[in-house]
Specification:
The structure is a homodimer of 198-residue chains. With 198 residues, chain A is α/β, with parallel strands linked by helices. Chain A has 5 helices and 11 strands, in the order H-E-E-E-H-E-H-E-E-E-E-H-E-H-E-E. Helices cover 28% and strands 37% of the residues of chain A. The longest helix of chain A has 15 residues. The first copy, chain A, is globular, with a radius of gyration of 16 Å. Chain A starts with a helix and ends in a 9-residue tail after the last strand.
Chain lengths: 198, 198
């Protein structure tokens, strides 16, 4: 998505070897117009796939997921992170390990919001090692629902997440793909939605 | 806001003496059309007030805050919760005590996103004891910005938050105000936006 790549070039900040900070429009301050364009683009890619729910994980995934849900006309569910979830038979839960933060979180969704009738689009802000998206996939499968695809705002293509999700048979759509950081510059790999950039 | 009160009557669940669960449209699964109506209503109330930023706190405040920001045409910022924030001179931080969870969280906003030029609308999903909104107010004041008002989706009017915010000189707009729970039914107090319900 050219609009997004342009914005990353202007406002993204590279920290260290492999961190891209986009807190001025996505992860802390949120630009609603860009988020709306992102949500609509993801909806366009999956519009004919019979999506009934959009699922994300709090908190930075909520804005793009909400606009994708609006454009598709379906509810959005955000999975909850919690260090300690008390035993509760109404919850689907799984553990997700974050390489960035080096912590394991328990992630949960109430059982009543997903059923075998659901076809789900997973949306998240970043894809790196894929553990958050794989955790959401496990919750969706626990519910007996079908995960159709994964929509990602920014993928770090030099990490393992992409291949892990494709190996699960999911249709992956990353709107910006960072192939490498070279001399303080971002080298983009071809985005999955390039055909829609007309 | 009649649309919201009606939805609370249909889908809200009363737990124990003083908890209202609205996880089917606000705090877990999100109904984008209701959130959009809520955001637009809050924007209508504050439209002539020169708002430059909408500030909320992750995670359930994000959806209504985002649509309010869209309707006002300004950025939305969500404050981050963290148990341990390492010392960082670029962060505004304050501690917020949750009576519901009986825990103190450190809440933070990056200094660069708020300045003395900003007039801020605070948005949150619930108002009970007012500690979250008061925490956001402290961050806004630390930045030298002006807090104009507070927009709340659901207020528990039998708790102390309302008076605490009004005592700070803030214009409070609660779209649904729960006066009491009686015999398993919700008794609403008059909402602050009733004049807009035409």
């Amino acid at each position: 998505m050219k609009l997004l790549e342009d914005r990353i070039n202007v406002d993204g900040r590279i920290l260290g070897d492999d961190i891209l900070k986009v807190d001025s429009f996505l992860t802390h301050q949120v630009d609603f117009s860009l988020m709306k364009a992102i949500g609509e683009r993801l909806a366009d890619v999956y519009r004919e796939k019979g999506i009934t729910k959009v699922v994300t994980i709090e908190a930075s995934g909520i804005a793009p997921a909400l606009y994708a849900a609006e454009s598709l006309g379906v509810p959005m569910i955000f999975a909850k992170k919690a260090k300690n979830v008390t035993m509760n038979e109404e919850l689907l839960t799984t553990d997700v390990f974050s390489f960035t933060k080096q912590v394991t979180s328990t992630v949960s969704i109430s059982k009543k919001f997903l059923s075998s009738d659901d076809s789900v689009l997973i949306v998240d802000d970043f894809l790196a090692n894929g553990q958050a998206a794989l955790g959401l996939l496990r919750l969706i499968e626990q519910a007996g629902a079908k995960a159709v695809g994964v929509g990602i705002v920014i993928e770090k293509s030099f990490q393992t997440g992409r291949q892990l999700l494709i190996n699960k048979g999911l249709q992956l759509t990353s709107l910006a793909r960072i192939g490498a950081f070279e001399n303080g510059q971002i080298v983009f790999a071809p985005a999955d939605d390039a055909a829609f950039d007309k």
